[in-house]
Amino acid sequence: MFLEEIQFNHQPGFSGDAMAMTLNRDTPVETPEWQRGRPAQPVAYVGEAVNGGVLTIRVRFSDGPAGQRVRVRALDADPQTDLDASQGCAALVTNLIVGAARALAGNALGSVAPNEVTFNEFGISFLQTFTLSGHFIRRGVPFTKRETRWRWQYEEGGRWVDIGESRHTVYVLPFAPVAPWNTLTTPRVDALDLAWEWAGGSRTRDEIAQRITRNVNRLPRVSYDPMTMFGGNGSEPFQLTSWLTAMRSGRPFQMNCTDCANAVTSLSNLLGCTLSCGRMNGTINTHTFLPIGGAAAVDSDWIAFNERVFLAWDYHEICWLDDFTSDRVWDATLRLDGDPSEDGRLAIDPVNMPWASRYWPLLVEVPRTRINERLVARRAVI
Amino acid sequence: MRMDKAMNAIDPVVAGARAEGLLILGFNAWIVAPDGMNTPDVRETIVPVRTRALWADQRVTTTELESSEAALHSLALELDANQLSELPLGPTDLGNVSFVHPDRVAPAVFFVRANVLVTITSRNTDVLPLAYRIDAELRARPQDNVREGGIDLQVQPDAKQTTISIKPQWRFDEGYVKVIAKGVALAKAGKEVVAEGKGPIEVFVVEKGRETYLATAALGTL
């Protein structure tokens, strides 16, 4: 008997199965995500949506007994997860440790409960629905990327016979993606991989947004430029693919506030945050700040855009919680100077910062700054 | 730089750009290399009409619009995505109009030639030499190694304008089409070109390393 294909995303929504995704801008994750003889495609689940409920997959087999029904199952192929609490205290303790470890790493999908598969006269089965047992997809789960290895078996004469193994890369998101994802843009694996690198293990939205903001701000080889480099003016989409290419190129590249706001919003909202890019148009005379790519200890890296010394900004764009009605902001473009003295410098990350009482007075000369217009956006991603 | 401010500087050149009678089809950001370079570190197609090339520290983005008017409008939109409150005009002999970054920030130039918007940014390399090379490529009438033929050119006049169908007879991946009709307003319309005005039209298919092909016709209305 052969395992032919496994479908993880087989129904609308993602409360009982995997989420629809694309690998990148151009390549969808195709269903079935696993096919015999082809590279497996990644799958993703949303902890909050599944919340420990029933998860199903659809599976097809070939070369089975013609016209017969056979029971099939798949075990978690990681040996430490097959422990049984009835084996005594040591096993019980080990199970607790394994359980805790599985909350952070290892197989998240558990095993595949046995079910009957019917084969036609050519020994080929239809797609059969199987239920996952012992999965760890539930509310409160941290953002993780895991490997699942299943050992498939069929029952013959009262014993289980191995069919083969399947391996799967599984992302577990704590929360459902928020716009632009699932509205304008299908969630992307290349974005998830970067988010995993930066915010893996995060359990809360605040932690996700904070870690992503800091990581964008500390990107190597990046420097500040007042020009938007990766799209996103007005309703133009954010050029995520191009930004990822720039990061991987090994070459220096530049970002401005719109680029940073788009990057943080896109990656954070992919993991369920509710950030928006908020653009303030007007005449913005800043205090001295440390732009993205600057070194806090290098005095000349601290700059200001101010009519007194050079030019003001015509606009600035940052991430807002929800929209302008909230008072919470994140800004990866810069670090503020938190030292009240003239000469001292204290670099502060604007993450989850109150806008009115803290962020804005630290960034700008309030009496000499005028905001004429505010625009808010969650831009599509290309 | 606010769009209205940019348009104040752009508006005076719109009529001249229209009368230039130049239209470019299929131009890519990597067609012109900086002096001494051959292959970009990165080449990307952002969307079919927008391409980007990275040459060491210089990042070139080209956007092909329907017409020179659309390209100039797009330039103003592009500048609206620049945080600086003022951008100086660039050299008057660069593009139909150009803007540059002031001295205290990283070098950048933004210019339009015909229906192509070109942006070059860098961390600390002078971007003007490459800008001039690209502009020269865009505006020049090919002279060397030009041969008539190789292009199916069909001209269909009506009462208001002429519709031009251009079909090169071979596939080319790295080349582009240049349409020249002095004093005629040219614009892309789907897969075709529309022209408002009368006079001769020249269509070139330009590809580095190959001879340039040429087709000609006369434009007019019924």
Task: Give the gist of this structure.
The complex is a heterodimer of chains A (382) and B (222). Chain A has 382 residues and is an alpha+beta fold. Chain A is 19% helix and 30% strand.
Describe the model.
The complex is a heterodimer of chains A (382) and B (222). By secondary structure, chain A is of the alpha+beta class. In chain A, α3 packs across α6 and α4 runs antiparallel to α6 (257-270). Chain A has a nine-stranded mixed beta sheet with strand order 2-1-4-7-6-5-8-9-3. A five-stranded antiparallel beta sheet of chain A has the order 18-15-14-12-19. In chain A, strands 13-16-17 form a three-stranded antiparallel beta sheet, with helices on one face. Chain A is 19% helix and 30% strand. The radius of gyration of chain A is 25 Å and the shape is elongated. Chain A contains seven helices and 19 strands. Chain A has two domains: 2-173, no CATH class; 189-377, no CATH class. In chain B, α1 (3-10) runs antiparallel to α3. A six-stranded antiparallel beta sheet of chain B has the order 2-3-4-7-6-5. A five-stranded mixed beta sheet of chain B has the order 1-11-14-15-8. Chain B has two domains: 3-139, 3-Layer(aba) Sandwich (Protein Transport Mog1p, Chain A), CATH 3.40.1000; 146-219, Sandwich (Immunoglobulin-like), CATH 2.60.40.10. Chain B is of the alpha+beta class. The longest helix of chain B is centred in the middle third of the chain and has 13 residues, at 68-80. The radius of gyration of chain B is 17 Å and the shape is globular. In chain B, a hairpin with a 4-residue loop joins β9 and β10 (162-168). The A-B interface holds A 223, 225-229, 231-234, 239, 241-242, 245-246, 249, 251-254, 256-258, 281, 283, 305, 307, 310-316, 382 and B 1-2, 41-42, 44, 46-47, 52, 54, 56-57, 59, 77-78, 80-86, 101-102, 104-106, 108, 119, 121, 123.
Topology:
The complex is a heterodimer of chains A (about 375) and B (about 220).
Chain A: E1 2-7, E2 34-35, E3 43-46, H1 47-50, E4 56-62, E5 69-76, H2 89-102, E6 111-118, E7 128-133, E8 144-156, E9 159-173, H3 189-199, H4 205-217, E10 222-224, H5 240-248, E11 253-255, H6 257-270, E12 275-284, E13 289-291, E14 313-321, E15 328-330, E16 334-337, E17 347-348, E18 353-354, H7 355-363, E19 370-377
Chain B: H1 3-10, H2 14-19, E1 22-25, E2 42-47, E3 50-55, E4 58-64, H3 68-80, E5 97-100, E6 108-113, E7 116-122, H4 128-139, E8 146-148, E9 151-157, E10 162-168, E11 176-180, E12 185-189, E13 192-196, E14 199-206, E15 212-219
Parallel strand pairs in B: 8-15
Antiparallel strand pairs in B: 1-11, 2-3, 3-4, 4-7, 5-6, 6-7, 9-10, 10-13, 11-14, 12-13, 14-15
Helix pairs in contact in B: 1-3
